[in-house]
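Practice set, problem 2.
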Amino acid sequence: MENVNNGTDAIYSLDERINIFKAIPFGLQHILAMFVANITPIIIVAGVCGLTAQDTAMVIQSAMIIAGIGTFIQLFPIWRIGSKLPIVMGISFTFVSLACVIGSKYGYGVILGAVLIGGIVEGILGLFAKYWIKIVAPIVAAAVVTAIGFSLLSVGAASFGGGTGAEDFGSAQNWILGTVTLAGCLIFNIFAKGYLKQLSVLFGLVLGYILALFMGVVDFSAFNDVQIIALPHLLPFNPEFNASAIIGFILIFLVSATETIGDTSAIASSGLGRDVTEKETSGSIACDGFVSSISSLFGCLPITSFSQNVGLVAMTKVVNRYAIATGAGIMVLAGFFPAIGALLATLPNAVLGGCTIMMFGTIVVSGLQMIGKCGFTQRNITISALSLSVGLGFTQCPEIFGIFPDIVKTVFAENCVAVVFVSAILLNLFLPKNMETGRNDDKPQGISQ
């Protein structure tokens, strides 16, 4: 039987057992970092599809349980499904645009049918990743990680301002909350000692929350009519199968897989100081896909690795699977005990933004470090520079995709990660392998074995 390590070094070890009382704060920190982002896609899509408040609450409840289960599987794989890396799972924003289009036209059941089939396709692709993953060279993964970081900066800024669409967006109170939270994170990180230093995000969130309470801006409406305990509903909506919806979702699942590859690479690089392995990438993608299919059976949207939490790992270097598993347990409990989820839902956006803006910047730096590790050859500079320029530049003026079919616009017009991935893959395939000499006889690098 394994011994539990009560020391502080265990939090920096992937597999060492850790005292649960030391583990809980690190797990809670991860949940607070992703909670709002986990339920926001559901709120958006449910509104477009015309779901009732009761149905929306039921789907949110399922989302917490599914996110917890998905995280457990990533941490502790089942067969070849899961990466055994400190990856936190949640409901994906990547599918929101397409889900809104499909849901408004065909209804919520068609979305669930497409998620069920698309998830199975991504899961199978993950299991057989060794046959195609070599085209994702280290420089491609590095460019994708950098793009993920850049794409999230606006998300962090929007939260800092009070949340997209908020009536008081950019108000003085939101500036105060975000700034105090960010300052709290930095000050705690500077003055805290030992392993406590890695709880700077949690400290900032608590400090910001207390300030929000004194300012009277915490919304407790989530506690209205909350149940003490609630069980998830299997097949609360009947899945319906529409060919065009299924094709569209399969394409977005491929985009989601590219983000997962980037997240998995970033976790290994920034958290463990090494390259990701083929087995880890394969298991991570398979988990994304198959758990997404399970998610649809509980009336929920697709699930994926959360870049917010990749940034948290990069920032704190806390990679212990057992510590992060406590966060997965909290998510499952929040699903069965709605009051826990209701409490987490009261966290103001500006407080969350004060912490995430730093975390997202850390992902950008991790991507740049990965590019540097690949080497600044003329070929690598061309691949990273051009793919990032096209991906970040074109998606900032999505009208440029106006001549393309709707499905292309849905997948690429506002998704810089997808454009960067496709551009980097094509450049990696067609550029001479040794541009300095003009030779083309070097073998491309792949993800490490």
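Problem 2, part (b): a different protein.
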Amino acid sequence: MKHRKRRNPGFRTLCAAALVTSLLAACRPSVAFHSFLPVSPAGMERDDTLRFDIPLPDSAAVYSLCVELRHRVSYPYCELPLLLVLTDDSLPPRLTDTVRMAVADGQGRWLGTGWGDLRTVSSSFIPLPAGMKDSCSITLNSLLPDSLLPGVSDVGIKIVSRRY
């Protein structure tokens, strides 16, 4: 009776893990831009305009953006509607949209992540228009009629790219 040598299962496991990791990494979009701008310690004022100047390194990429909001639990509403305007060298603006940042659900439970009294929520991704060149500018303004929104800490933009 012949005995077969047993191969080390670690080698097969290592190869399978490397294959799965490379497949997952190939489909993951890369972050092209991610930045937060703080607002006044008292909160976001009605006239505050947050402006992000964004370099776009790859003209062949397809870009999407999401808006991120950091707020304290003293924020008095369930959502924060923001006016988003994207401009580049062309006129009129390339994109104008209302982004509704859901902060709490219908029962008043805070959404997003965080600890203590500081929470972070993100909007869904919004595709950017095709043909964007070297850079663009995004402005955000509150659409609530209040003169001051206490509890808003800072607002950010994340842009991801996927090259096809």
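Answer key, part (b): The chain is about 10% helix and 50% strand. The chain has one domain: 29-163.
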